[in-house]
Structure formats: structure tokens, C-alpha cells
């Protein structure tokens, strides 16, 4: 199977603050970004769904202007026609789950599990049982809750219980779980021991240093830790901090990771899908394409 060249595109955006009231994603910009991806040789799009869809199972989560399931199905067909494999993403980290509305305040309760299972099953059906389902699960720590009106943190065994529940629920729906790997930064030994090897890992490091300075950063060396422990990886690069991170990430991972477990790369500008962000979004797309081809 071809190596993955993926880009994260935001349909929903309510992962960091209270709902904006209306959908932020602009249709014209969505089309421009996806066409740019196709032109630059991408073969996968990771769709951050959030509040951007009026789910049939839970329409109460939709922002004003959210896409209907019919519109989403039409777009998924168009994306496949462009050669882009669409993959759903719903972030279930308590730091980034404000899109869940009232259920954001019901974490780890029977109602929470019921709603999350409904959404995972619906996404699986909408995307026609895709290969992967990205569960997010990043930055669930106190530092990423500063400024939140409501704070919920899973720690210790509860964090692992819910992680295992999400992985099994995704697998039961016919997909493979995919997640951000930053939990390993502070819990390396436990992470490597307890994380199911079936879960695809996307570690991330967005700075510019990949020489001896970088080796003092656990997050860079964690790429190698994950590789040695037998995890499949899709390393994440970004132009959010610097324009040289993407080339550095690709070069470092190609030199240090086994090819059989390096499934490809994921680009993430962390900019919303709006005309005001076009330059950053296009630059991100172009940077990974250039890093992959060496041009």
C-alpha cells in the first residue's frame, strides 16, 4: 500500500474554546484546500469533525450551519474522486472535547459512553468503514485546561480504562484507532508497556531543532522509542511554529525509523478552514509535498 501523505483539515473547530455559534469552516476554502492537496500528491485527508456535522444520532451537537450527513457524504465522494482517502477524527481528550456540548461535562459516565459509541458508529457508517479513526486523546493535563470554565481530567487507571474503551469501540466498528502520542512524554515506560500495539501513533514535535539540541527533548526521541517498541507511526509535522519543521521531521524519521512501521506523514497547520488562513494552510500542504519529494 502506498505510503500515507495526509493533511489534517478542520470541519469542526470547537476543540479549544466555547462554541462560536456558527460553523467556522468556509465551503470555498474547504474546496480550495482539498484541491491543493490533490494537486500536490496527497492521498489522505484527516477530517476533524467535531460540531461540524448534524449527526443523525446526536443532532444537538451541531453548530449553526453544520453540514448535513447528506452534504458530508457528497463531499466524501468528491474527495475520493480527487484521490484522497477520507479518515474521520473526533477528539475525545477532555482538553479538546467542548464540541461534545453537555456531554463534555459527563466524562466517564454511562451516558458519555453511550453518546461516544453512537458517534463512532455513525462516523464509521458515514465514511464507509475507513481504515482508521483518530480519537485525538492529546494534552489531557492541567496545563491545557487553564482558562477553561469547566475542568475534567482523567488520570491513572481511569485514563487507561477510557483509552481502552475507545480503542475497543473503534475496533468493534471495523476501524483501527489512531491517536496523538504526547502522553508518552511524561509517562514513557507506562505508555510503552500498556498501550495496545494496534493503535497507530502520531507523535508530534513542531520546533526546528533536529540536531544534538533536539535529542534533549523527549518528544523527539520518543519517535525512536515508539519504533523500537513495535508501534506503527504516522509522525506529525507542522508549520504552526516554524516553516522548517516539516522537512526536519521527515528527514529525522526517515533516518531513524524502520520503514515497515513508518506508515507515512501527517501535516497539520492548526489553522481553521477560512480564507484568512489560506496562506498558512497552503504553505503547510506545499512543505510536506516538498519534503517528501526532496524539491
Summarize, please:
The protein is an alpha/beta fold.
Walk me through the structure.
Helix content is about 35%, strand content about 10%. The chain is of the alpha/beta class. Helix 7 (about 245-255) packs parallel to helix 8 (about 280-295). The model has no long low-confidence stretch (mean pLDDT about 95).
Detail the topology: elements first, then pairings.
Elements: E1 4-10, H1 27-39, E2 44-48, H2 69-81, E3 85-89, H3 110-126, E4 132-134, H4 156-172, E5 176-180, H5 188-194, E6 200-202, H6 218-228, E7 236-237, H7 245-256, E8 264-267, H8 278-293
Parallel strand pairs: 1-2, 1-8, 2-3, 4-5, 5-6, 7-8
Helix pairs in contact: 1-8, 7-8
Notable characteristics:
295 residues, TIM Barrel, globular, five-stranded parallel beta sheet, alpha/beta
